[in-house]
Amino acid sequence: MKPFRTWLGGLLAVWAMAQSQSAFAQVRAPAPMPPASAYSAAVSTEWFSLALQLAQQNPGFSPPVVSRALAYLSLALYESVVPGMAGYQSLAGQLNELISLPWAQLDEPLHWPTVANASMATMTRMMFSNASAENKARIDLLERNLPIKYSQDFDPAVLSVEITNRSETFGKLMAMAIMTWARTDGGHEAWGPIRRNRENYVPPSGPGKWSATPPTFSPALLPWWGENRPFVLRRAQDCPAPPPPTYSEEPGSAFYKDAQEVYRVSNAATQEQRQFALYWADDAGKTPTPAGHWAFIANDLLKAQKASLAGAAETMARLNLAMSDAFVASWATKYSLNSIRPVTYVQLVIDSNWAPQLMNTPPFPEYPSGHSVQSRAAAGVLSALMGTNTRFTDNTHNDRGWGPRSFPSFAAASDEAALSRLYAGIHFRFGVEGGKAQGQCVADKVMALKFKR
Amino acid sequence: MGLAQTAPPAVPHFVNETESAGLQSRFEGEGEFMVGGGLATFDCDGDGLPEVYVTAGVNKAKFYRNRSSRGGPIKLQEEHSGLELTNAIGAYPLDIDGDGITDLVVLRVGEVEVFRGLGACKFERANDAWNIHTGNAWHTAFSATWERGQNWPTLAIGTYIDRSKSDFPWGSCTPALLIRPAASGKGFAPGQPLTPGYCALSMLFSDWNRSGEAALRVSNDREYYKGGQEQLWRIAPGQAPALYTEAQGWKPMQIWGMGIASHDLDGDGFPEVFLTSMADNKLQKLEGDGSRPSFGDVAYKRGVTAHRPYAGGDVHPSTAWHAQFADVNNDGLIDLLVVKGNVSTMPDFATLDPTNLLLGQADGRFVEAGQEAGIANFKRGRGGMLADLNGDGLLDLVVVNRWDKAQLWRNVGAGSADKPVGMGHWMALRLQQNDGNRDAVGAWVEVDLGTQVIRQELTVGGGHASGQMGWMHFGLGEATAVKARVQWPSGEWSPWQAVPADSFSIWNKGSGLDRWSAP
Fold first, then answer.
1. pLDDT band with cut points at 50, 70 and 90 for residue A158
2. Looking at residue A196, what is its pLDDT?
3. What is the rounded CA–CA span in Å between residue B272 and residue B276?
4. Are A284 and A420 in contact (CB under 8 A)?
5. Distance CA B155, CA B180 (A)
6. Looking at chain A, which residue has its C-alpha nearest residue B229?
7. Chain A touched by B173 (CB under 8 Å)
8. Shortest CA distance to B141 belongs to which of B155, B128, B154, B162?
9. Model pTM?
10. Is A23 part of the contact surface with chain B (CB cutoff 8 Å)?
């Protein structure tokens, strides 16, 4: 039993007696409770802050895996508070293979911050089930301390033991119901040992095909991720990237020209371009990864805008569903085309001694640029929700000494993130541009979801 | 009508007689025994008192001869019957071969075993004789119907997750099996898979729209399926089974489906369906005129959400398994039993999760009375059965618990163990007909109390891994003179006929109604 409940033990017994004694009571008129829009976004922002730290520290949480975890966290948040959002509806019925979810009992008033706290805590534990003991303790601590830290949302004068218990159990139930669905999407426990009798991935060979890249020549990362069930896209191929140029080693060909550009630009990158490349690299294990970067931006904005719990729930759901689907769509394209990386091409055709100077090439096929797909998907959603010309300050990397940085718009930031991969020498320009097109398609599909009834 | 106008229902008292009755059974087992835990009641010695067969997981399933004295304490005597099995998790009695002797289907982790009744409570395995071969899957649900023109039943057997994929079970639900009579007129044709299968934990053939053709409702566990949902299969004679679709009116729904109970609660002639789940229990009512299989949820409206323990202080969500509609206080208003219990030690679901006894009221709502009735069981309940074990017209209760003893309660009505007192009038009816479907499965019985008409469909299946065959029980309230009629499985109605209250009667389609007296 959690310490939070220990001091409530006696009261629980009283409540239980009252429950049984009122067994014959007709449905009581529910005491009115404020809607989710009446509370601050604190529960949401605190949990996402912790999730981003866990994403950075948990073994196996590569960028696609992080995007998936954030999406389920967001969905658990939204679905657990949507009964308290007038005019809004569950996304069950709109997301693939998710038909229905439990709904709040009509006669039981719920306290939405408590519901959200329990739901987020439960989903965080399940998504980061391989967290270290220290991080598991941090999850417990946050769940316990949030009501104390945010007394304006968790007013003890309003919160009865009964309402707290009911709210906690509903939040947990929702998280568990969503988790039953999550386990069958193809990405469950991807960080663990192969659990689905998959054979080893053998990349196709031939001109223009991807092969493991120097200096580590690591095996392909998550080659089946593109087969995962997307959230919103009916299938990953619903948002295709435009066809890349035909592979050619002929000087003057489109492919050659783009390769030569990578060679030239990365070798002659300005200090600013180098900074961009490093700023958006968002490497796993060192940062919250690209999806975590954009979640950080959104989280910061929700705090700055003093958003409500309801507003945060919708924003984070749209943003993270889009980024997760962006990874699935881009991975499906990457592993269907299996395009060669610049380092391989340049060494074969232009300069056998060349290698990107700023960073190693990630261990998966080039086309399209995953950063470009995911960043554009994120920017597309945030632009639609917060405005196309919203200036914002990005504090994601302040503690690394790289920020704060200000951007005139979400599109400007995502364009910089996309192009940073060219500066880094790991993507062709066509990979960047194709990725942006694919990402915008994902954003449009997510914005077409009907959150309102 | 508000509560102010509705008198609270009389609460029956149940006395725990597990020990004194001689019931000694524990349902044990790890992973593959987390679901199931059923029992069956049926009369195999003709004394009118149902025998009890209790599954026990990895332990031996036991057969108990009912040696109770009428109206007295319940006495069960373990006997060797031929039904002794390990890996048994559920059981459903029915007369498969139409010889007038009840047979038994035993669901198992492993091959389903089917037993032919020999009389005098002896049984022999009949899988080979009847050509029933289910394979080595995890069998978790059963139902049966007699399709029009058939002398042998059509059997549906539900399965759970793929036993070979226990390391990653999600998305590995295996299909159910539909076994139809052989063209030769004896035994069965090879089974056919009901694809897709979504981890069925309960199945029920029921004539949902009174068309004369039972459809197969399947309640599935969302915990393990991928893209699954609740299902309703159309099983039309001579045709391949087909799922009802959204285009036909079916409303997709996902729950942790575990048990099915069915009863016409509102007197419109169509059965309502209660579905057990993890907190998310549903009471479905047919919408419209029965031309489309569209069901809406009225659990909240009727007061049967039963989503949390009502006693014991555990505030976590409930886990509900067996469900059964029956009139436990004989007031003429149907009641609802819901057996509950944690799957194992799931911390976010109630550990103390008492069985619900939801008593029906005149206003159509139900109120909880489990604790007052004395059946607030805090073990890990699974299967259960309300049946009149001592022939006094009051329904007694048996519950199977995982990792614990099965339990038995005697219903002593408004009295005590020493002095039981009846609560209302009642009648017990057994249907008979001469074709292969000897027990008239699929029949509807209507009982006119003068103030209301009660309707019951005679089904085989549903609940959670638990079945019964025997007396149909009707509470009559204050009515002493009632009339009844039967719509036989053929669709033919018998004329209304006076039926004596507080008695057992056998209604033979050919020879009519006869009062039955204990030998």
1. confident
2. 52
3. 13
4. no
5. 6
6. A99
7. no
8. B155
9. 0.93
10. yes
B150 touches chain A (CB under 8 A): no
Reduced to 3 states (helix: H, G, I; strand: E, B; else coil), residue B397 is: strand
Residue A9 predicted with pLDDT over 70:
no
Give A178 to chain B, closest Cα distance, Å.
10
CA distance B138 to chain A (A): 20
**Structure token pair of residue A442:** 């994902």
A217's CB contacts (< 8 A; 6+ apart) are none
Q: How far is A190 from chain B (nearest CA, A)?
A: 12
- Residue B514's alpha-carbon distances to A362, B102, B391, B498, B517, in angstroms, are 84, 21, 17, 11, 10
State pLDDT tens for residues A367-378: 999 999 999 999
A-chain CB neighbours of B314 within 8 Å are 16
Note the pLDDT tens digit of each residue in A39-65: 999 999 999 999 999 999 999 999 999
Indicate the pLDDT class of residue A22, thresholds 50, 70 and 90.
very low
Separation CA A342–CA A258 (nearest Å): 9
Beta strands (DSSP E) in A174-313 are none
Residue B14, beta-bridge partner list: B411
- CB-based contact B266:B364 (threshold 8 Å): yes
Beta-bridged to residue B467, according to DSSP, are B40
CA dist B250 and B295 (Å) reads 7
Handedness of CA A307, A310, A314, A316 (dihedral sign): positive
CB contact under 8 A, A177 and B310: no
Report residue B459 as tokens: 């089904």
Which ranges constitute the DSSP H helices of B277-399?
299-302, 370-373
Token pair for B157: 């057997």
User: Of B8, B170, B311, which is closest to A24 when you measure between CB atoms?
Assistant: B8
Q: What is the pLDDT of residues A232-278, one digit of tens each?
A: 999 999 999 999 999 999 999 999 999 999 999 989 999 999 999 99
> For the segment B296-308, what is each residue's pLDDT rounded down to a tens digit?
999 999 999 999 9
Question: Smallest Cβ distance to A169: which of B256, B305, B317?
Answer: B317
CB A297 within 8 A of CB A329: no
Reduced to 3 states (helix: H, G, I; strand: E, B; else coil), residue B456 is: strand
Could you tell me whether strands B425-432 and A392-394 are parallel, antiparallel, or unpaired per DSSP bridges? unpaired
How close A299 gets to chain B, by Cα (Å)?
29
Q: Would you mind telling me the total number of residues written for chain B in this entry?
A: 519
pLDDT for position A198: 63
**Running DSSP on this structure, what letter comes out for residue B370?**
H
> Is the confidence at residue A11, as pLDDT, over 60?
no
- Residues A316, A323: Cα–Cα separation, whole Å: 10
- Contact assessment for residue B189 and residue B150, using Cβ atoms and an 8 Å cutoff: no
Determine the Cα–Cα distance for residues B220 and B203; give it in Å rounded to an integer.
Answer: 9
Would you say residue B440 has pLDDT above 90? yes
Residue A386: pLDDT above 70? yes
Contact check, Cβ <8 Å, B3/A107: no
Cα separation of B220 and B204, whole Å? 12
State yes or no: pLDDT of B379 exceeds 90. yes
Better-scored residue on pLDDT, A288 or B519? A288
Contacts of A403 (CB under 8 A, 6+ apart): A279, A394, A395, A396, A397
Amino acid at A245: P
Q: What percent of chain B has pLDDT over 70?
A: 99
Q: Between residues 330 and 349 of chain B, which touch chain A (CB distance below 8 Å)?
A: 348
pLDDT for A197: 54
Q: Hey, how many other C-beta atoms are within 10 angstroms of the C-beta on B320?
A: 28
Tens-digit pLDDT profile for residues B30-41? 999 999 999 999
Q: Is the pLDDT of residue A2 over 50?
A: no
Tokens (6 digits) for B80 = 């060797």
